[in-house]
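HUMAN:
Could you generate one sequence with tokenized structure?
ASSISTANT:
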Amino acid sequence: MSGALLLCAVALALLAAGGAIPPPEEAARMARFVLHNCDWGALATLSAQEGLRGHPFANIFSLSDGPPGPSGGSGVPYLYLTDMEISVQDLEINSNASLTVSLAQTPYCKKHRYDPQNPLCAHIIFCGSIVKVNDSEADLAKKALFSRHPEMESWPKDHNWFFAKFNITNIWVLDYFGGLKIVTPEEYYSIKP
């Protein structure tokens, strides 16, 4: 079977399996789909901590681009952070980071018996920086996060929680064999999932 026919067969099989996952040739749509269907991601920073300074440091964070459901979200990864958290302390020194989200956290990969490292178990790598949201965006971030993570509303107020977003500058999609696909932020935000 030729590469193009194999790609079409896999895309048709994926669509027949649930109809929701975008085909591999729609990398920007896949990036939006994966982010919207994930509730957490691995955020990697450059450590500012004694003994680890300058080394990569990854940590798990709850996130949301909007309430769950077919609306598809905004595409903006929102986070609820506190300065007490070690990765946030790293970000205060250097706000650059990467964020990886994977369909491995959803039932999709288990259903198809895809190992999390299998490219068919799609994952997206975002690069950019973490920024606090302004007052006009805080309600959107709050609705996005608290709709998926209701426990957040009861977290200790004395921790000085704040809403932040991942400001995306680069996007890599791994959802099929043959290597990463590059999606620009413009392509990503222009897609309606």
Observations:
- The helical segments are 3-18, 27-37, 86-93, 107-111, 135-148, 185-190.
- The chain has a mean pLDDT of 90.
